[in-house]
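Researcher: Next entry in the queue.
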Amino acid sequence: MKIMGWRPPQRPEWVKVYMKMPGPMKAQLLLLTILTISSASSTALLISKQAKSTSDASTLPVVESLEVAKVNGELRLRVTGNATTVVLRNLSKTLQNLDETLSSVKSSVSIQREGG
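Model: Structure for this entry, 116 residues:
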């Protein structure tokens, strides 16, 4: 229907289909819609609570420790924390390099003694 060239807004197609449905089907669709919305919002709420508790836990101070013990003539290390682990790995590399350097120095000294 047009009134002086103006046409009233039309209903969306889904509304037209919904209006043609029988009553019991409308009720079932309404219940399904309510169930879907409540399930989705409940899941979203649980996820947001879990994310919040996880982010709260990550703001706690980081515990770093290094325990050294001598057991049967060997050093035993117990490391806690990322920064301490990185430092210990760097120290281990440095000690390996130092050991290699000392080994090469000892072997060159023994060669000089034998030859000289």
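Model: The two ends are 119 Å apart (CA to CA).
Researcher: Noted, moving on.
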